[in-house]
Amino acid sequence: MAASGLSRRRALTGAAGVGLALPVLAACGNDGSTSAGDPAGSSTPSPPGSPSPTPTPSGSASSAGAFATAADIPVGGGAVFLDEGVVVTQPTAGTFQGFSIQCTHAGCPVNEVTETINCPCHASTFSITDGSPQGGPASEPLGTVELNVEGDQISLA
Hints:
- Helix content is 13%, strand content 24%.
- The protein contains 1 helix and 10 strands; from the N terminus they run H-E-E-E-E-E-E-E-E-E-E.
């Protein structure tokens, strides 16, 4: 073995250290998905059948404080807004209800609205009309969230 230069052991140790540091540094980076500069709102409803909601800039709600429009909420269904922590439903035309996204069984966020509000963790389902449990292990209703509906703009009260 030569007295000068880099030993194989030292080279491998250094490479392992760099390999371990890269994921940590990458986690600290900015992926460009912040919504600080998004004046139009920061989330859109998750589409029916979506396995997990992914908030994206909407642009559909233009009034200050509004995060959705009436057109974003289907009659007989609803939409999940993660950033606002609310599920908005429209059980009948023109009637909007707001509920917490936190499932009352284990605290998981609900992720979709079909004819019920659905939690992916343990298959609890809730009524779109009053948030009451309809199936699964949840035995308590979803918490209500007050909404302001002005024209077609929906915001938190």
